[in-house]
# Entry
Amino acid sequence: MIQNVARQCYLFAKRSPRLRKLIRLPIVARFKAALATRLAVGDKQYERWLLEHRARRLAGITPCTEPSLLSFLTTVWNTPAPYLQVLADSLLNQSPDRDFEWILLDNGTTDPQTRACLQAAVASDPRVKLFRVEDNLGIVGGMRFCLERATGRYVLPLDSDDYLYPDATAILKHWITSHNFPPLLYSDEDHLLGCRAVQPYFKPDWDPVLFLNSAYIAHLCAIDRHRALELDVYAHADANGCHDWDTFLKFMAAGHVPVHISEMLYSWRMHARSTASNINSKNYIHQSHQAVLGRYLARRPAAARYHLEPSPLFDGTPDWWIRRSHVAPRPILSLVLCEQPPHSEPTIVAGDPPLTELKLARTTPINRVLELVETWAPQGGLVRLISEELTVDNSEWPWEALALMELHPDVAVVGGPVHDRRGVLVDAGRYLGFGDGCGCPDIGRTVHDRGYFAQLWKQRSVSAVSTRFCVFDAAFLTDLLRDCGHWKHVSLAWLGAWAGAFALRTGRRVVYSPFFSAASNQDWYRDVSPAERAEFLATHHDILPDRRFYSKHLSLSPDLAYRPAPPAPLSHVA
# Structure
């Protein structure tokens, strides 16, 4: 009840420019964070789920006998002693696996209570290796200091005020060994508000699209130590505010793919000095993000075409948009889907960039659409599908599609949110196996709602998008339409679902972008027959549900979207 009231108040505040500006003031942000800790309200449903799941998830896991596998790295500078003690207790009391080392750096601490807590950790456990420097090395400098003194095969950064679940090391080792020692891994996380576990983040599997605008991999990361040294991680002091992001970007640039540990192992503490609840608590976050993302973009081909800008969807927070310059476009065929289209030939529509437009009925048979695409789609070009009555909110859509396809060459389709005239979402990113077979868990939210961990306002990979407004790679669309010729019931209205399944089977990517926003009051799916839905489900039953970007722990029911489902059988832990 309290959480729902708080959420409604927040959404009300978002609608007022003055209130938005007020709640972003640093002094107000610090007050909110301090008040939240004192008035901590737990998520009882999540806590019950977590308790049940943790009681069962270790069953069937063979104890790991691999020696010297884990080295935890922590730098400490005047961390409040009670917070540091919670971390120490949670790490040193791991069960059943206790084979690891903890590289602990006193990074110029002056608080006597903090220093006493550090000394106590060393005195009580031989696995702790404590070092001290008199002059603070900064976060990145301190992490490099710890990395160079670690001996484990993997290093795992730990913030000095957070918490590890008691079986974290056992789960980590199981995933590392069962996945043949991958270069790096990351886990799910929740947040520690007072003594309560709140805001669980059941993360997607590795998604380079989401990763470029959200360091969602942070907490808990396991990083191959030798590869980290080879790639020279923790080398840039300007990454103090996002060193995990910087590390994973270096691994990504080297061609390494992280493994997602879909288990809750880490709690990120929320307090006034933590970015978990007060993004303004560190005044260098913006500069760190710009430096880290700027270095990544500078290494891309034709780097001058991309510009890092503050996202216009957020107010003052360090959220970014990689924007494409209006140069070197790909030719575009625009298929305008109409109720009763006039007989017309393709026309050239002036714009930035210009496009070839062809009108056709929404009920046009798929084989006829294929003929048109094969005739008129430019080689190496793009094809836009758009409903005649739809109003596009952002004219940047062609350049947004181009940027995503260039930065991520496996992208085949780009679409976005569709809202009605009241500002209520009627479509967004869809997931195979959700709801009716390819449903959207965000329907009913408003355009002011950022969604689950702000994902409605960020580019990310999904299973499918709506064909009422989307852009296809022309070659992919041609292959898709040819494949659809094998089936009896395929409509343009449900083509997004067929495209999503085809992309999954052929190793291509479907991307949701908030910059593809549009308005429509039309019931787009009225032309989808029960026979088509049944044929789709029967054809693709072997890949349903698609859990790559919608966690296996989340419910597939629209009534429980983004809420944990009953724990899965333990045979599915890995």
